[in-house]
Known about the structure:
mainly beta, elongated
Amino acid sequence: MRxxxxxxxxxxxxxxxxxxxxxxxxxxxxxxxAATATLLSSAPTADGLTEERVDLNGDGVGEVTNYWxxxxxxxxxLVHKDTDLNHxxxxxxxxxxxxxxxVTEEMDGDFDGRTDWVDHYIGGKxxxxxxxxxxxxxxxxxxxxxxxxxRRKERDTNADGRVDFWEYLxxxxxxxxTGKDNDGDGKMDVRDQ
Length: 193
């Protein structure tokens, strides 16, 4: 599978930056990536954030860039995180946060410079994903989540920009119902149980 980036998600929220920050109300899951992680720089940005570049593998190049919002009398919050997974100095995963909770995570799984997968979060929990399965620059698979599990998949199987195939899944991820749009109007015409 070409989405090598997915194996490394979720990424640690702060790496070294979290040592400076107190815990937020709902921290993202953390993974210890490397014992050699080094804070390379910490500087204010033009929009009032603090940018921290972190070297995860000891090569002197930052693989993670965290953007923090400092708040008087309160914990600072992670606002944005960029991650270079394949060490080519380009962003492969871009995550945005509001009030300390992840809102979106965009991934370039095949490292061609285009976003192939976007996860959307509500209340810090993944609600749906948009995926470009054929790497042509257009999302053609949409996954909808409930309680952390995929419950529905919608696909554009003929590349016309409209969903024409639906799958509904149970708690174990088994397809329990499907639907198909035969006339291209974007509405389900056939439903199989």
